[in-house]
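Table S2 (continued). Query chain:
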Amino acid sequence: MKVVAYERSVQGTGASRRLRNSGKTPGIIYGGTELPQAVELDHNALFHALKKEAFHSSILDIEVGGTVQQALLRDYQMHPFKPLVLHIDFQRVDAKQKVHMKIPLHFTGDDISPAVKLGGGVVNHIVNELEIICLPSDLPEFIAIDLSKMAIGDSIHAKDISLPKGVSLSPHVDHDNPAIAVARLPLVSSEPIASGAPEAPADPAATKLKDKEGKE
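Corresponding output:
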């Protein structure tokens, strides 16, 4: 995925504010053997790019001054209540060094699984992304998870996933082996009794005893 950026010579809070007012977003590209590079990007193009899943999980070709460098999106800051990207960070990648990335999970088949079609249950997606390690050339855009064979009580954990070639789980994910999806019966909540519902009939024996005590 290609990103066009421009060199940013002026830095500081005031300069960044003026940049945003002109429809640009300040950013930085860091990492590797080169020095960090301050850049600016067209805000509208960046804002729409951030809505794309691939922008968050793919190697980006960032062109600055006619030179293309490969990088990953590492962080960005949004305005608290305005649709405004305040700042963005990219990290350069080395083709020979493995990267740690959180990759989105795409779930399929839960609607035709035995848990749903035969058991009347639901398949809950516990997590929607997974942290992996791989070389930049092996980085997948997403990882597909097939849920079509899940029955009630079944679960899929991180180590159950068939990962693409050259891709492995990050050490802490491999150690914890978290649940990815679980098939279970839906929870049934008890409905409260309506305030206008008739009261339960009184116990005849208790009523008779009360009448007898009243007469005494």
